[in-house]
Design goal:
alpha/beta; 3 helices; about 130 residues; globular; two-stranded parallel sheet
Length: about 130
């Protein structure tokens, strides 16, 4: 996906994550913007990314927000959980999500939303220890 032109550099957050068996999840990408107009052009590279499950969105800064975190849980994590419940013929299962200790992730709003809307056990790790996992 083209995100860099000759004179314009964009700040982004790309969330890279995988399962315990190293299934790589499609990465959501958050661009700094207040409008869809600054998202990458609709070229073949972007179409390939979308076809493979990549999701691009924006907010006033490129950091994860409450809404982008909810989107990751809903569109990636829960879909993965549900597909594996079906594949393995299981009943309802709880999923463990190991995530960095970031202000949005530990906010009461996201904790309450996750508890109500997703069967996920959250485990927080300080950012400086993420690479130790």
């Amino acid at each position: 996906m083209q995100v860099l032109s000759l004179e314009d550099k964009k700040q982004i957050t790309m969330v890279v994550s995988c399962s315990d068996v190293m299934d790589l999840f499609p990465p959501p990408i958050v661009f700094t913007s207040t409008t869809f107009k600054t998202l990458p052009p609709n070229n073949q590279g972007k179409k390939n990314c979308i076809k493979n499950g990549w999701d691009s969105t924006f907010n006033k800064n490129h950091w994860l927000s409450l809404e982008t975190t909810k989107k990751i849980v809903t569109n990636i994590i829960l879909l993965y959980l549900q597909s594996h419940i079906q594949i393995l013929g299981l009943k309802e299962q709880k999923m463990v999500w190991i995530i960095d200790y970031w202000s949005v992730h530990i906010s009461k709003k996201i904790l309450d939303w996750t508890k109500k809307n997703a069967n996920i056990l959250l485990i927080f790790v300080l950012v400086k220890y993420i690479n130790e996992l």
